[in-house]
Design goal:
394 residues, Alpha/beta knot, Trp Operon Repressor, Chain A, Aminopeptidase, seven-stranded mixed β-sheet, 21% strand, binds S-adenosylmethionine
Length: 394
């Protein structure tokens, strides 16, 4: 990965990107960082890079010309590059962006603004995306550029000792990381949890996963609401709910279904469930048999969903057209918001992406919006949900 950084303060990058892990990655040629002084590309005698804003107002604006010439020079130094302007108006940077940038590009050009920002025409001319470090305003784009370069660089193979170094960390799988402990065993009267000294790797793994769930639920309920649970996760969450001292945690987990969920290809043995569903939806139960028997002829694959104590919970049908699959889940009201709906839809999606589909359109007017949110899908006006890509769990 190559980084070309356009800045008025190249020396600011020396220590943050020249030392420690990122510095070693540069020595090993795993990454290359080039800083370009924007001022070197001015055409006036004072090397001025900014001027007053048209329309009045306070402060100065970085002019398009020196930045453009600096960008052209940087752009000419290698292969195709993605140009990013660090800006408080950009999309807030997340781990998912770091993963995307590391995976999709070999070269990033980072533009650091100063003063009031950059002439809009330069942004329109060369910038592919604007990225913000967060909802606050800094004096310049240098710290955001360092943060972005650091987050992307550590994902480049070989920069960290082991892939596990980042796949087990906060935000990788939508969870915050479990707590860490090191020697001594007792510090200031506080003991390391017994399980971590048990030597039982399975127990350690289960404890860590539960801690991750607990910490995410307590600190970032917004992230917790977007999680998709496997059957094993639901079991752990049931244990967590039963063990928790905190009533808020018990309440938050009370709604989750922790029993068995079965998602299986629909056949005539599911007729009773379909009849109940038709009745619930205000349709004639007699039509259910036609629904099941015409699936094959219409090229539709359908899955029936069952859960312990909840019986038939709904169905999820899909058909594929080119690289796009159209997924139509119908989840009955009694099965919503318990983790059954997300588990079932996620299960079908995994099955589906094992085939040829790379994109999915989830069509439903009864898929609860929190399910759509957890699945990472976008809601459109006509109640459809578009899933952007194949690796939708990331
Ligand atoms: C003082 S800021 C300009 C703020 C701008 N006038 C506004 O209100 O959006 C100067 C420069 O710092 C950088 N910057 C400031 N806050 C940032 C943030 N949260 N994320 C990324 N870059 C930021 C940008 O490059 C910006 O051009």
């Amino acid at each position: 990965m190559e980084f070309d950084i356009l800045t008025l303060f190249p020396q600011m990058f020396d220590a943050p990107l020249g030392d420690s892990i990122i510095g070693r990655a540069q020595s090993k040629k795993l990454i290359t960082v080039r800083c370009h002084q924007i001022r070197d590309f001015t055409t006036n005698r004072q090397n001025q890079v900014d001027d007053y804003p048209y329309g009045g107002g306070s402060g100065c604006v970085m002019q398009a010309q020196p930045l453009y010439d600096c960008w052209k020079h940087a752009n000419s130094l290698g292969g195709p590059a993605r140009t990013i302007y660090l800006s408080p108006r950009g999309k807030t940077f997340t781990q998912a962006d770091a993963v995307r940038l590391a995976a999709d590009y070999d070269r990033l050009i980072l533009i650091c603004g100063h003063y009031e920002g950059v002439d809009q025409r330069l942004i329109d001319a060369v910038v592919d995306e604007e990225i913000s470090l967060g909802d606050f305003v800094l004096t310049g784009g240098e710290i955001p550029a360092m943060a972005l370069a650091d987050a992307v660089a550590r994902l480049i193979p070989g920069v960290l000792a082991d892939t596990v170094c980042f796949t087990e960390e906060s935000h990788w799988s939508g969870l915050l990381e479990y707590p860490h402990y090191s020697r001594p065993e007792i510090w200031e009267g506080r003991r390391v949890p017994d399980v971590l000294q048990s030597g039982d790797h399975g127990a350690v793994e289960r404890w860590r996963k539960k801690q991750s769930f607990l910490i995410t639920l307590q600190k970032r309920p917004d992230m917790f609401a977007r999680l998709l649970f496997t059957k094993a996760d639901l079991k752990l969450l049931g244990e967590l709910r039963d063990e928790a001292d905190d009533p808020a945690v018990r309440n938050a987990l009370a709604r989750l279904h922790t029993g068995r969920i079965t998602v299986r290809r629909t056949t005539k043995r599911d007729l009773k469930g379909f009849e109940t569903m038709y009745q619930t939806l205000g349709l004639s139960p007699a039509a259910a048999i036609d629904h099941i028997t015409t699936l094959d002829a219409e090229g539709i694959t359908c899955f029936s969903i069952y859960a312990d104590d909840h019986g038939f919970c709904g169905h999820c049908a899909y058909d594929v057209d080119g690289d796009t699959a159209f997924l139509r889940p119908t989840i009955l009201p009694h099965a919503r918001d318990k983790g059954i709906d997300t588990f079932a839809v996620a299960h079908v999606l995994d099955h589906l992406f094992a085939g040829t589909a790379t994109k999915t359109c989830v069509i439903s007017d009864d898929l609860p919006s929190d399910v759509a949110q957890r699945l990472g899908v976008v809601r459109t006006a006509n109640e459809s949900y578009i899933l952007a890509k194949k690796n939708w769990r990331k």
